Amino acid sequence: MLEITNLHVSVEGIEILKGINLQVNAGELHAVMGPNGSGKSTFANVLAGRDTYVVTAGEVLYEGKNLLEMSPEERAREGLFLSFQYPVVIPGVNNTYFLQAAVNAGRKHRGEEEMDAVDFLGLIKDKVKLVQLDESFLNRSVNEGFSGGEKKRNEILQMLILEPRLAVLDETDSGLDIDALKIVAEGVNAFRNPERAFLVITHYQRILNYIKPDRVHVLANGRIAKSGGPELAELLEEKGYSWVQAEGDPAN
Amino acid sequence: MSKIDLYRNHFDEATRDGFHDQPEAVRQLRQLAMTQFEQLGFPTTRMEAWRNTNLAQLAKSEFLAPDANIAIEQSQLQPFYLDNSIQVVVVAGRFRPDLSSLDGLPREVGIIGLAEAITQNNRLVLTHLGRYADYREEALTALNTAFLSDGVLIHVPEKVTIDRPINVICLSSNRNHTATVTHPRTLVVAGRTTQVTLAERFVRLSGGPTFTNAVTEIVAGPGSIVDYTRLQLEPDDAHHIATVQVHQEADSRVELHTITIGGGLVRNNLNSTLAAEGAEVSLNGLYLVRESQHVDNHTRIDHAAPHCTSAENYKGILDDQGHAVFNGRIIVHQDAQKTDATQSNQNLMLSDQALVNTNPQLEIYADDVKCRHGSTVGQIDEDIIFYFLTRGIDRDAARRLLVHGFTREITNRIENQTIREFVNELIDRWFPNGQEGAP
Prior knowledge:
heterodimer, B: disordered C terminus
């Protein structure tokens, strides 16, 4: 599904990612953990195609294709989804209309017929229940007046509707209370299947109590410093990130 | 050299040839206004209120009086009629009952030509006409008043509600290609506890360059509800200077929507005086400016009584070398305690050659008031564009949706559905490939 080899990324001339190697297979959920400043958000953004992040070396293959050559919108239409750490507010653009435009952009790309407003409303109503957002949110401008937790649930709603094959969740758990965290986790769990893969990027181990990862990677100083099974997350919770950084072992 | 002499000649000719049946009071008013105009002359950029709008070219140009009896077929007006509305047509400043359709108007309501009202010594004309729009200080209002001969009088008597909107179509067309000037005049008197919705639309069918110098006076009686939309849709070689002066009595609620899409040089002076307690006004403005258009919105709200509320929201979209000016003046007079006034002006720049001058002016002479204002000038946010891209929506579509959203925040405030949808349609047509992006 996703093969990353020796990925180097700079922002404004400063190297943030210094050689990432990672392989995620279909059906797997990987957690990428790390302290602040370790490069987690850079990693998420570069996968989605943000042009302020410059790839200076390395290769990313997504379903065998060169991801780095694709525009952000192509990546999205090809089934890659980024759940933002800080979803933006889009004033004056209706949430339902936005989602419909997104879905139809994907359908058009795949040569499928575009969905009309009636069909789309049918689709969206079920999913809204799943993330426990009130239907009134659909008629508001995208993220306008949404609380932090509501924005994150709206991200998960978009994921459920767009049905990506690779979902990158960038600190979707940050700032969520325990109830909202459970809703988000349930949304993700309900969405897991053997065809899909996930990268869950997080600072805290907490969300991994609700979403079981297949692999856990620790990002430190722009490299994957340690990889392991779910038990690695618990170890981190106990010992803190300084333990990994102190070991300084660029194991992979 | 400005053409003030030319306007004097027009005036003398008009006085010699017509105006004979006007009552003495109106003749005097016109004489006085003409003298005022001669003394004041065209405003120049040395004046604070005209610093960013240069009328030098306009003042130098020669505009002739149009042929007011121009033949126009009802079918030519079809695109300008609004559904389920009362249609009032004014051609080159003249009320045209032959082209208007007053079906569905409650019997008590009077819509007549100002010329007729003036010659009949109509009580409302004597009480209200020229009383609010200031011809003593404002040169162009003086010029309009000097040529006062016709226009529209709309009178809604006490306790009457008009369900259908009144659609006033002001045509500045002339038959040939000479440059012409018109001075449209409208007087709206809404009596105690009335309700009325009206739109004034400025359009042109054909002809050469025009100078439209319009004045509208609106009197909102105690407890009345008045909803007024002004739509500027003239072509690029149209010069349009407008003054809308609103006078609000106790507990009146007035909504003013000023939508400017057309016109090469446009100046909208929109003023409201909150003269008695409990009056509320909201001013919503939208201007779409491109190519070499120049659009200036000057608003003034006088809080002259306690417990009044004003809310002002103006938004502009600027492309190409478009130039916009926003000047929002709010004066809270000494007696106007418990005033609540808000003002906001937001500008979206689609081109780095476009220019906007935005200037909020608060003058507060009372001590117990709530006033807030703010203005922004910005481009489309790249973070927002990236968000669209990550959802598979390309940059062009994202831009279109954002700009649409920006305009909808103003048009959604137009309560009347017929007018709102009509305005939205016009906006959508302004954008290249507009219809596609519209939600």
